[in-house]
Amino acid sequence: MELGFWPEGDEFVMLDDRIPGTGDPRYWRCLNAAWGCNWIVEAESGEIWCRSCRLTRGRPDTGRADAVAAWEIAEGFKRRLVRQLMTLGLPIEAPTHPVGVDAPNPQLGDEPDGVVFDLVHLPDNPGMTGHRPGAITLDLREVDDGYREQVRVSLGEAERTVLGHLRHEVGHHYWRVLVDAPGDHTAFRALFGDERTDYEAALELHYGRPTGPPPASHITYYATSHPAEDWAETFAHYLAIRDGIETVDAYSNRPVGGADALDTGSDGRWVERWRAISEIVNAVTVGLGHPAPYPYRITEPVSAKLSYVHERVATVRRPDGGL
């Protein structure tokens, strides 16, 4: 029996399932199955790539075995991200404008129109990971543990992961969707600051000063560089927290932290749940001889920012998708 993950149903299904009366297959494997994709598409849809692979605009040359291996790993993390965004009810589709490798990226000021991912392997071009409106680039060198750790230490970061990169960069996209497009700037600026502040100058100033622990008002030190980065860092942590709570609930008969459901609204109980969960996870991990995997403080100001993200996400959730 062969199984594949059907993202539209958020479940694993049998690939040999047939449509009654016709004997036609219900599902096909994604065309990228040869490169590790375990997602499927409905046969009658006419699609050849799954919901996640359709979002990949750029990928390395298949003649580079090392690059392809890194790409396969990165796609696995992207599938986890895409699945979570779908279950949260957030729009995650390819843009309606051309998304070929040579197509121009949308410009600032354009209406949000989907997002694509460029997963690139260019060892001689430093600093490739980043975001432009409608397009996210991930430097596949980040898959290499040694390279990623070297960069983490040099930048004074508490931790650095491939999935964390993807969550952060897609956060920039969802700022346009959740804040900019609906015009929720006043509430955003009251918490994060004015995003119209010169971005390039702010980053230059940030990288020119010594690193250190973040102030109580920010989840990470990098979040202090600019309101746009504060949002992206907070959004990434929101996704990580939601993923963590969902995972604990999937493995537990009695949820950790005292609450009895993930759907805790915007009153902050889900933040308290995560504090309890992360304390346990950190303690167990340190006991195994590894650094704490969540070395962050969720202070009251940070909690307020997380709640704001939660509320903005709730404005676009699917009717059948709880928060």
Question: What's the arrangement of secondary structure elements?
Answer:
Blueprint: E1 3-6, E2 11-14, E3 27-29, E4 40-42, E5 56-58, H1 65-87, E6 116-120, E7 130-132, E8 135-139, H2 145-154, H3 162-180, H4 185-192, H5 199-207, H6 227-251, H7 269-287, H8 300-314
Parallel strand pairs: 5-6, 6-8
Antiparallel strand pairs: 1-2, 3-4, 7-8
Helix pairs in contact: 1-3, 3-6, 6-7, 6-8
Number of strands: 8
What proportion of the residues is helical, as a percent range? Answer: 25-40%
Major sheet strand order: 5-6-8-7
Class from helix and strand fractions? alpha/beta
Number of domains: 3
Q: Strand count, sense and closure of the main sheet? A: 4 strands, mixed
> Roughly what is the average pLDDT, rounded to an integer?
87
Shape: globular
Q: Could you list the spans in which at least 5 consecutive residues all have pLDDT below 50? A: 259-266, 318-323
Report the end-to-end length measured between terminal Cα atoms: 34 Å
Give the amount of beta strand, in percent. Answer: 5-15%
**Radius of gyration, rounded?**
20 Å
Question: What are the secondary-structure elements, in order, as H or E?
Answer: EEEEEHEEEHHHHHHH
Annotation field: number of helices = 8
